[in-house]
Amino acid sequence: MKPAAAAVAAVLVLSPSLAAAQKYPERPIRLIIQSPAGGTADLIARVIAQKVGDSLGQQVVPDNRDGAAGTVSAEITAAAAPNGYTLLVASVSLMAINVTLRAGKTTYHPEKSFTHVTLAGKVPLALAVLSSYPAKSLKELIAIAKAKPGAINYGSAGVGSSNHITGEMLKTEAGIDMTHVPYKGGAPAMAALLSNQLEVYIATVPTIMPMVNAGRIRAIAVSTLKRSPALPDVPTMAESGLPGFDVSSWFCIVGPAGMPKPIVALLNKEIAAALASPDAKQRLTAAGVNVETTTPEGLSAFVRSEIVKMGKAVRASGAKVD
Fold it and tell me: Is the link from the previous residue into 25 a cis peptide, with omega within 30 of 0?
């Protein structure tokens, strides 16, 4: 085939998808959420749904699909048509931790199975203790842990959760031994801390804020390099003697692999604008979310680096799932 004819043929092959991209969206967009209503992922999804829906003139419909630590939602998204009408608010667990923790037990891969659209936000984790607990700083907690190896029980929202992996990274970086106690979610872990069954609960900042505000628990350090706007007086772990310590429970927007680039570019632009709007940013910041968006390529690079970092932490922790 002559070059000119080949070019025409290529245009003819591509034109249906290009035409579809130009008309997008023509119907409602499904925005899948990996967790039940009320969590951080759900909040991010509903902010995006309202703003992007208004901007594009089509409904963006939140769809909570929790199950199997979020893998149900990931598998639904990965199997959907790559036409921009199915998106997912995905967490660090789905996009970075499960690659190692659930190796061979999932049907999706965070780099190969999805089209990366944008990062949405990072949520710092905090070390929470009862207000009466003797350690008032991370340095004091580390001193107690070194004096009595294994005596400190720290709780998380489950094996392989960002809470758990943060705790294991803390143990490695600080050279201490603490005993991990996993719970089936944040609520029972918080109840265990409040009833003095735990010395430490490692949790996302939004999870602990009600009890911090009530004066029942105290946050002694946060896990990100920058302090949390919701807890501006609480130092970071890096500031507290662990230079470079930086872990967050983050969320991003992805779709099925193979989405047309014009649609990806449009969604990236619209979602970034939605999250940057003053009212949305204020609402998310108040909930402990540090809004942060990227280009699609930026998200891909970030996911790649997080897979490496979280993989090392999972292997060091010895965490396993049945």
Answer: yes
- Residues 138, 180, single domain; the answer is yes
User: Per-block average pLDDT, block size 10, for the chain (322 residues)?
Assistant: 46 54 92 86 94 97 84 94 98 92 90 98 95 97 96 90 91 94 88 96 90 96 92 96 94 98 98 97 89 97 96 83 68
Model pTM? 0.84
SS3 assignment, position 259: coil
CATH code for the domain of 196: 3.40.190.10
Which residues, listed in sequence order, are joined to residue 290 by a DSSP beta bridge?
A: 122
20, 30, 140 from 27: Cα distances, Å: 12, 10, 56
Is there a contact between 219 and 231 (Cβ–Cβ < 8 Å)?
Answer: yes
When divided into structural domains, the chain yields a total of 2
Within this chain, do residues 192 and 277 fall inside the same structural domain, yes or no? no
Same domain, 192 and 278: no
Query: Domain of 257?
Result: 29-122+248-317
